[in-house]
Amino acid sequence: MSGIFDAYARYYDLLYADKDYAGEAAYVLDLAREYLQPPAATKPLQILELGCGTGAHAEHFIATGCTVHGVDRSREMVARASDRLRGNAAASFGNGDATTIDLGRQFDLVVALFHVLSYQTEDAAVAAFFHTAAVHLRPGGVAVFDFWHGPGVDADPPATRVRRLSDTSLNVVRIAEPTQHPETNVIDVGYTLFFNVAGADAWRCTEETHRMRYFFLPELTRLQERAGLESVCYHPWMEPAGEPGPSNWYAVLVGRKPLG
């Protein structure tokens, strides 16, 4: 999997240049501050980000006064995140697997955004992922995960999509072709990417497959609680209240490590 994202890192930021990283970071911090024990309405938080990518969320967390340690399996992603926040003492990044890493320290908040949870396609991996979060949380700390929401996926099955993007140095055409496996709640998304350096005649092509899992609340709650986290809220992604339904492809789950 890390090899996929090492290649992906070259055009990742262009593909997601329109993503509202600032709004998502603010949303996650609002959720965290609502459920942290004891309350921390204004206190800067110590954050562990699992699957930090190129550091775009971390940049916005840090802008609010928080500190962030980001972990990613892709060395290229980690290198780009480090370059993005080079010289900022509130940021640190390292290479590691979210299902096995043990940093030997605890944080106020553990986050895994942009569907990192959905890349854990087996129950054992999901359980290990939640265990990592629990081990790295202080008592009363919270974990925030977004994920592909099963009822939404079933109601609106994935379809082939094409994106075309460019900036001053790169042109990209991405074709996403999904294959759904309902018996395992898994979708194999086959990506064909064509890209060239702006002004050049030659285009290059690469192909990747991202295996993703969509989840239903009972299984997530069971696996999270087995890892030692209590489930405290479950919302449509980027919504402050309410439960997701068949119209929601994306959802957020917040767990908390008990004080006792």
Please, could you describe this protein's structure?
29% of the residues lie in helices and 35% in strands. Strand 4, helix 5 (123-135) and strand 5 (137-149) form a beta-alpha-beta unit. The chain folds into 2 domains: 2-150 and 214-256, Vaccinia Virus protein VP39 (Rossmann fold), CATH 3.40.50; 153-213, CAC2371-like domains (S-adenosyl-L-methionine-dependent methyltransferases, Single Sheet), CATH 2.20.130. Helix 2 packs across helix 3. The chain starts with a helix and ends with a strand. The chain has 260 residues and is α/β, with parallel strands linked by helices. Strands 1, 2, 3, 4, 5, 6, 7, 8, 9, 10 and 11 form an 11-stranded mixed beta sheet that branches. The chain is built from 7 helices and 11 strands.
Oligomer classification: single chain
- Number of self-contained structural domains: 2
Alpha carbon gap, first and last residue? 37 Å
How much of the sequence lies in strands comes to 35-45%
Q: Low-confidence runs (pLDDT<50, min 5 residues)?
A: 3-7
Helix content: 25-40%
